[in-house]
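Justification of computing resources. Each target in the renewal requires a structure prediction run like the one illustrated here; the chain below, 757 residues long, is used simply to show the kind of job we budget for.
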Amino acid sequence: MEALTGLTVAESNPSHPQLVRAPRGAPNVLIILLDDTGFAQLGCFGADISTPNIDRLAANGLSYNHFHVTALCSPTRASLLTGRNHHAVGMGFLSDMPMGFPGYTARIPQSAAMLPRLLRDAGWSTMAIGKWHLTPRGERSAAGPFNLWPTGVGFERYYGVLHGGANYWTPNLVSDNHYIDPPATYEEGYHLSADLADQVIRTISDQKSAAPEKPFFCYYAEAATHAPHQVDQRWSEPYAGRYDDGWEGWRERTFARQLESGIVPEGTRLTERPPWVQEWDGLDDDAQRLFARMHEIYAGFVSHTDAQIGRVIDHLRLIGELDNTIVMLCSDNGASAEGGHVGSINEHRFTKGLRESVEANFARIDEFGGPRSYNHYAWGWAWAGNTPFRLWKRYAWLGGTRTPLVVHWPSGIAASGEVRSQFCHVVDLMPTLLDLCGVDVPTTVDGVRQLPVDGRSLASTFEDPEAPSPRGSQYFEVQGSRAMYADGWKATTNHVGTAHGDEIALIPGSHAFAGDHWALFNLHDDFSEADDISADHPEKVAELEAAWWKAAEANNVLPLDDGYNGRLPAISPPAYPQPTRVVYRPGAGPVADEVLPLLCHGFSVTAELTVGPGGAEGIIAALGDWSSGFALYALDGHLIANLCLSGDQFKVSSPDPVPRAASLGCRYEPTSPTSGRMEVLVDGTVVGSLELDRSLPVSWQNGGTGLRIGLDAGFPVCDDYSPPFAWTGTIRSVEVAVSDPRPADLGQVIAESLNSD
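Resulting structure tokens:
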């Protein structure tokens, strides 16, 4: 009815807007997404790692043992939140590498409106807490654009980290659409996982206090258990000595528990140790102690994560919302082998291609898990963490694609503690939740016609353990590793990519797509993908390979690439490319690494400033920290430039104190693809230099702390100072300039730099 307006309110008839309201009694939704957590790394899926809170969800809910993901971070998240296959929404690879191909744009299109948008429009409050990793490189700075940040796709609140990784002691945090410093320091007991749980509790409390009857959708995406594996020693101490007999022994005990609990069916064969995973008994004492310690820390890290999840669940119980909250817990991929075959004290070393050794890591064994490390365990533990499967994250084998799924909803699921064995995939979660919430997928959103939803609802499996699988087929592709599932059959290629040196050097397999062997498995009889029967059923192999190519065409999977460098020439440039020269001034927040001038091919820093009355002291400019970073500062009057390259320190200093008013700076020039020279300058004159035996990285940190002017925050770049170590005089400006003109092809530049590492 239209409003009728008279002279006064008493003489008028109002017409009120039709406000959106969720159905009375509609459920809350809580998605808990773990990171790099393998099939066998939770107690309810066979581990001896203490996860009582997750186990309680499973004991009072359902566990799915045929749940699958894409085997990589950004793609799984895109599929989860859109209900579409990852390539179909442009997320065929990591959001850090947007490419000019439809399946790899790293920009989820408006034609795939995300779950938070659909639930928000239907009357739910929406909040995202934790790791995002769905905003393309070049769009994650303070300048945005913000349309692919969480608050741009339907979440009303956001708190967490935009990038793929973070230092748990000093993360680069975002609140809604701006960067903030952590609310406390490492010395004060700060840890990202605890902070995220605090934020989940606080945000839900705010929402329920304001509108008790309004349901919420909370996307709680833990950064854990992605490396670095950082946790207070109090959490790892209970595991001391527990892993001294190694990954084979742990894996066998885990498998026995899996069989006993029924999470793995009887008749399953434990796949054999591959030759590229070291035989534990063949390792010397130092290697065994080192590798055992790595898993003690990881186990403590998992238990700490579980405790934070428990705090959130306890809060929902306290406020009376747990029974009517649909909780879904899963992982984005299987356990990660990115620590290489001997692990790493600093994961940046592995990603930059620097060789690791047992001797060097053992010398720093007491630092693992603490503030001086950015550590990752040896890949034998990734293999064990995916028991009983083969391989790990980044592969289409079950070790990469099959992860735990726990569903808990006391008001809607009568069964408890039961295992469901229907084939399902991460694309099925969104349609399941919309089905349970009574929300239809619209034909159009904001006038944009929506893509077909690839997933199907799992709701029928909640009460009927014999209900058919919602879908009969699913393709897989991750960094060139390919597989096709159809009605219990799965064909998987033996492709080994070029992204990680240890793998291509040690793991046998095909390195050319045309030469890939498609192994065949009947998963109805072979739960662990143990027995290749391709020779007995060539017609089935041909059928599944043909089905893969058909799915690849339908979902924009081509072109294929099995590493990083091959993708780089196709990287899409940002709207505002990295400059060749920029002037910074104190007062701004940290400048994101990825929008700085490209430093790797030579750069200069020139600061116009005055020295304080006590002499030159403090930070002029700092980027990153002691895991990887750069700092220009003065100490006791001397000008110093310090480069921390994957944990290795390189420092050059002026021999004399600097004058009170001066132009201070530094300059780096490469002298070969694998070496360079660092100089410090006073009034344009070189006063100190140092030869480096390595090149600079393209990206200093994955989600690092950014460039700061006049002070530092978080951890320092070196031990000369403790943040903030503010400049004691006055800084007027700091100019950063690259030595060469900006190249026309950003991809080529990055490829050249990576190839030189």
